[in-house]
């Protein structure tokens, strides 16, 4: 397999973060990213799922926020789907964000007007249960994975989790692939 | 208002880089904080096959908050520059954990920062 032209390089970074404030909080994150050189073309795909839940005995003391992001460079086609949900109550709050993507880079060819991007963005109010049930304590957990196959590849992941007793939970995660 | 607030942190990173006509890289990190403890894990693998292959795999991280902290890192590098298909491979794994009474941000009362203050009004 010959090394691809430098202009055909494909780089994709996907990730997100979640935070919750309250006496009892729980936040989680999951990130997965994959890329492969298929010869005439390369593909990259992945997902990020972040959730946050909070409970506070003080009215209005519970907050939950989540976010995801995607950055793709060098792809000719990018399909992206984002789903966000959030619920805010008097004593509890929860939020969930999910992002999936798939991208293709055809070697030696580029769309005449730049990359073709299809982005589906769905936001919901609260209609169904989601997230965790933070009964007590402050929890934070995040996992990130990245994998690349081809000529001259790079994979990198970064995760961080932070809690402050009786007050706060935070996670951040990202995964990067390049080939 | 005085007293300390238990604060736990875990942050991990991993990077794998491979140069050659035929390469594979894989990385994974995980960080978890639960009441009284924080745990971190990072792994990286890089493999390359070429006439002059090059690989690099690094992992690291930081955990904070507990009174007892432990960490462990393993790194293995293999280069086999013989035959028609020389191979290079790097592996790295890091695990970290901390638990016990918190001393991170000790002396600072975060609950005081979050609550109302009347200092200086009387």
Characterization of the model:
With 179 residues, chain A is an all-beta fold. Chain A has one domain. Chain A has no helices and ten strands. Chain A is elongated and about 60 Å long. Chain B is 4% helix and 62% strand. Chain B is rod-shaped and about 60 Å long. By secondary structure, chain B is mostly beta strands. The two termini of chain B are 17 Å apart. Chain B has one domain (9-105). The longest helix of chain B is centred in the last third of the chain and has 5 residues, at 110-114. Residues 112-122 of chain B have low confidence and may be disordered. In chain B, 43% of the residues are buried. A four-stranded antiparallel sheet of chain B has the order 2-3-6-5, with no helix packed on it. Chain B has a two-stranded antiparallel sheet with strand order 1-4. The interface between A and B is large, with 38 and 40 residues.
Radius of gyration of chain A, taken over Cα atoms and rounded to an integer in Å:
19 Å
Largest sheet of chain A: 6 strands, mixed
Please provide the ordered H/E string of secondary-structure elements of chain B.
EEEEEEH
- On the 0 to 100 scale, the average pLDDT of chain A is 91
Shape summary of chain B = rod-shaped
Using only CA atoms, what is the Rg of chain B? 22 Å
Count up the helices of chain B.
Answer: 1
State the helical fraction of chain B: under 10%
Strand line-up across the major sheet of chain B: 2-3-6-5
Work out the number of β strands of chain B: 6
Number of strands of chain A: 10
Strand content of chain B: over 45%
| Strand order within the widest beta sheet of chain A | 7-5-6-3-2-8
The number of domains of chain B is 1
Mean of pLDDT of chain B: 85
* Poorly predicted segments of chain A: 1-6
Amount of helix of chain A: under 10%
Shape of chain A: elongated
Compressed to H and E, one letter per element, the order of chain A equals: EEEEEEEEEE
The SS-based structural class of chain A is mainly beta
Oligomer: heterodimer
């Amino acid at each position: 397999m010959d090394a691809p032209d430098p202009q055909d390089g494909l780089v994709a970074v996907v990730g997100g973060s979640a935070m919750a404030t309250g006496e009892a909080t729980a936040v989680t994150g999951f990130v997965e990213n994959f890329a492969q050189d298929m010869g005439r073309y390369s593909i990259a795909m992945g997902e990020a799922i972040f959730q946050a839940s909070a409970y506070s005995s003080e009215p209005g003391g519970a907050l939950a926020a989540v976010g995801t992001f995607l950055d793709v460079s060098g792809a000719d086609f990018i399909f992206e789907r984002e789903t966000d949900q959030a619920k805010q109550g008097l004593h509890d709050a929860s939020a969930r964000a999910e992002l999936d993507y798939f991208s293709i880079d055809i070697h030696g060819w580029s769309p005449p007007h730049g990359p073709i991007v299809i982005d589906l963005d769905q936001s919901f109010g609260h209609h169904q249960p989601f997230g965790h049930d933070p009964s007590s304590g402050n929890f934070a957990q995040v996992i990130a994975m990245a994998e690349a196959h081809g000529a001259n590849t790079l994979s990198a992941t970064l995760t961080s989790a932070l809690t402050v007793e009786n007050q706060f939970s935070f996670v951040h995660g990202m995964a990067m692939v390049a080939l | 208002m005085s007293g300390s607030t238990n604060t736990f942190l875990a942050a991990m990173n991993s990077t794998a880089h491979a140069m050659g006509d035929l390469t594979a890289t894989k990385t994974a990190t995980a960080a978890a904080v639960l009441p009284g403890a924080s745990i971190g894990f990072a792994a990286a693998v890089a493999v390359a096959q070429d006439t002059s292959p090059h690989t690099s795999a690094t992992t690291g991280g930081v955990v904070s908050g507990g009174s007892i902290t432990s960490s462990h890192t393993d790194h293995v590098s293999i280069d086999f520059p013989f035959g028609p298909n020389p191979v290079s491979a790097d592996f790295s794994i890091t695990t970290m954990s901390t638990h016990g009474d918190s001393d991170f941000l000790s002396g600072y009362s975060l609950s005081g920062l979050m609550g109302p203050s009347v200092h200086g009004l009387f």
